[in-house]
Write a structure and sequence with these properties.
It holds the Pfam family ABC_tran. This is ABC transporter domain-containing protein. InterPro entries: AAA+_ATPase, ABC_transporter-like_ATP-bd, ABC_transporter-like_CS, P-loop_NTPase, PstB-like. The chain is an alpha/beta fold and 259 residues long. It has a single domain, classed as Rossmann fold. Helix content is 35%, strand content 25%. It contains ten helices and ten strands. The strands form two sheets. Strands 6-7-8-3-9-10 form a six-stranded mixed β-sheet, with helices on both faces. The longest helix has 14 residues. Bound molecules: adenosine-5'-triphosphate (ATP) and magnesium ion (MG). The site of adenosine-5'-triphosphate has 13 residues, from strand 2 and helix 1.
Length: 259
Amino acid sequence: MSKRIDVKDLDIYYGDFHAVKNVSMTIEPRSVTAFIGPSGCGKSTVLRTLNRMHEVIPGAYVKGEVAIDGTNLYGRGVDPVDVRRQVGMVFQRPNPFPTMTIKENVLAGVRLNSKRISSKAADELTEKALRGANLWNEVKDRLDKPGSGLSGGQQQRLCIARAIAIQPEVILMDEPCSALDPISTLAIEDLINELKDRYTVVIVTHNMQQAARVSDKTGFFNLEATGKPGELVEYDSTQNIFNNPGQQATEDYISGRFG
Ligand SMILES: Nc1ncnc2c1ncn2[C@@H]1O[C@H](COP(=O)(O)OP(=O)(O)OP(=O)(O)O)[C@@H](O)[C@H]1O
Ligand SMILES: [Mg+2]
């Protein structure tokens, strides 16, 4: 299920604004890759180009290539809806649909893809996704209660269950723990560690310890000055980025000298 992502010469624009320049990187399957860097350097922007969510913003476009197992997502005839089925996304704030039950939330993405499934299959999928998100034991007796009745950390795991219910190959997470307490954060980190057995995971985080704990590889993004495009300064094993970075800017950032 897990897939390799090859980003090649990617430039990202919001209308006239050149937000990120010249990113090339290979993200290995069954691994966790962390994007770090100061606010505004383009981490979320790059992440959204990996499932064509970027172009949902009016005037936004990219140049270059993002290939998943060799197929360019931006190639002719590729349907962005299919892309988002393969590449799921979890956002910074847990965003369960408030009027839906826990179970309906898990199945929301599946139903959106207009797949009709039997009620037995729906039950099975709900359990599987909730187990996969480490949430099953906490909610199995209240699947028909509103998703909004869960704690923040549980809601975020519910959103992860919703993302994995569509059986993607890649899961993107944009600061998934920034609205969570430390215990819920550790629960999500454990989960990310398990998810990489099956999925390719890319996570944006401002938490250096988190990047060091959960990721195999780390990309450090930075920008020269306000108004200039962000760029990928260094991309290497997390070990090297944190212990032996190749660039002064990386070292300054991880040691807390700026950002
Ligand atoms: N919808 C948008 N329209 C226009 N410009 C945008 C939009 N979203 C982001 N930008 C700009 O693109 C640049 C990169 O933003 P992005 O949100 O990717 O940064 P980031 O690294 O994720 O920052 P943070 O750590 O604060 O989340 C910024 O200059 C930002 O103002
Ligand atoms: Mg961001």
